[in-house]
């Protein structure tokens, strides 16, 4: 199904799109200005860099992944609907668009849940290192299914440096691997693979379906609500809902007021709305691999906040390893699209 989705995307971009589907040809032909790209990247970077930290605070306080993600999705859905009542365009809606987004939303909801499960026991720095290797697999997907060429020597070395930095990090933080259950790393692996799919298939959706950014955010969050509910039931998350009393939160927070948990959840929900809008806007303007690398580089601020407030015991060597990942990521430049074979047109 995934491979067919990418093949459908290739057919759309080569002029063979289903006439029943509205394609965003005008948006694809218009070249964005440098300022537009810079503003989109800056907005996405701010929301993305803060989201991991906000989620870490929220999941540490509440400890139930399904509850945290459900609240965030409901908050985003209600926010978009209120904006729609105030005049914001949130359409169009059709069964064909819904089918197109369904596979992406499965990956999105599953990826968010898997990330929450990983954040329960891992530091934000560790998840950042895992994400830093994401451009490698995204580049392979772009080459195989989306018609993009292979990177030049500088970009190849940059990606190799990202992987090397990640290996250095895991070498020095091996104790964290032993300390936590291996199931945590299975969740992180699931998040990694689902995120790689989102980064590429999400770009295909933008080119294939003309829908407002608010519509994209609404589809993404509203349809994720039942999926997370089903996943939470399957994993057994809701068995622990009875622990969410104010007293229970205070005990879990080592004496901090329960309001801290509620405020953390609210802040993460607000940032979730922001990242929904800025991610779709940024994704329209850059390649999937570049978009992925932006997500890696903007984690500099995430790491600074994390080692200040969450993991002050981080070593100089581990921080240096993260710097290698991020620094090499900044040296990457996306390769051009491969020429289209005339016989395929």
Q: What descriptive keywords fit this protein?
A:
345 residues; single chain; mainly alpha; 75% helix; disordered N terminus; 0% strand; 17 helices
The residue fraction in helices comes out at: over 70%
Quaternary: single chain
Shape designation: globular
Strand content: under 5%
Q: What's the total helix number?
A: 17
Rg over CA atoms, rounded to whole Å, is 20 Å
What's the total count of β strands? 0
- Average pLDDT, all residues: 76
C-alpha termini separation: 23 Å
Q: Which structural class matches the secondary elements?
A: mainly alpha
The helix/strand order is HHHHHHHHHHHHHHHHH
Low-confidence stretches: 1-7, 9-29
Main sheet summary: none
Tell me what you see in this structure.
75% of the residues lie in helices and 0% in strands. It is mostly helical. The protein has 17 helices and no strands. Helix 7 (134-145) runs parallel beside helix 10. The model is unreliable at 1-7 and 9-29 (pLDDT under 50). The relative contact order is 0.21. The chain has helices at 2-13, 25-29, 34-62, 65-85, 95-119, 124-132, 134-145, 153-172, 174-179, 182-208, 213-222, 224-235, 246-252, 259-285, 288-297, 299-310, 316-330.
SSE arrangement:
Blueprint lengths: L1 H12 L11 H5 L4 H29 L2 H21 L9 H25 L4 H9 L1 H12 L7 H20 L1 H6 L2 H27 L4 H10 L1 H12 L10 H7 L6 H27 L2 H10 L1 H12 L5 H15 L15
Helix pairs in contact: 1-10, 3-14, 3-16, 4-5, 4-11, 4-12, 4-14, 5-10, 5-12, 6-8, 6-15, 6-17, 7-10, 7-15, 8-17, 10-15, 11-14, 15-17
């Amino acid at each position: 199904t995934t491979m067919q989705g990418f093949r459908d995307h290739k057919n759309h971009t080569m002029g063979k799109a289903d006439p029943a589907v509205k394609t965003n040809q005008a948006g694809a032909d218009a070249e964005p200005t440098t300022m537009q790209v810079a503003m989109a990247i800056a907005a996405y970077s701010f929301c993305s860099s803060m989201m991991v930290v906000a989620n870490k605070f929220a999941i540490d306080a509440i400890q139930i992944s399904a509850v945290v993600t459900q609240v965030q999705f409901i908050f985003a859905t209600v926010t978009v609907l209120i904006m729609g009542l105030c005049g914001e365009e949130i359409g169009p809606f059709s069964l064909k668009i819904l089918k197109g987004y369904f596979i992406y939303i499965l990956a999105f909801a599953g990826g968010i849940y898997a990330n929450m499960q990983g954040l329960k026991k891992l530091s934000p720095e560790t998840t950042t290192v895992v994400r830093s290797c994401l451009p490698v697999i995204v580049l392979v997907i772009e080459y195989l299914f989306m018609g993009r060429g292979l990177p030049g020597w500088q970009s190849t070395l940059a990606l190799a440096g990202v992987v090397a930095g990640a290996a250095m990090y895991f070498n020095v933080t091996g104790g964290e691997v032993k300390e936590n259950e291996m199931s945590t790393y299975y969740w992180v692996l699931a998040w990694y693979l689902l995120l790689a799919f989102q980064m590429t298939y999400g770009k295909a959706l933008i080119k294939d379906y003309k829908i407002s950014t608010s519509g994209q955010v609404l589809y993404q969050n509203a349809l994720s609500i039942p999926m997370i509910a089903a996943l939470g039931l399957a994993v057994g998350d809701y068995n622990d809902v009875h622990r969410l009393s104010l007293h229970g939160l205070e005990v879990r927070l080592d004496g901090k007021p329960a309001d801290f948990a509620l405020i953390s959840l609210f802040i993460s929900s607000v940032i979730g709305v922001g990242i929904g809008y800025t991610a779709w806007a940024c994704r329209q303007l850059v390649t999937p691999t570049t978009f992925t690398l932006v997500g890696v580089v903007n984690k500099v601020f995430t790491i600074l906040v994390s080692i200040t407030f969450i993991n002050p015991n981080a070593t100089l060597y581990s921080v240096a390893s993260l710097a290698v990942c991020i620094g090499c990521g900044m040296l990457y430049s996306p390769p051009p699209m491969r020429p289209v074979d005339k016989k395929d047109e």
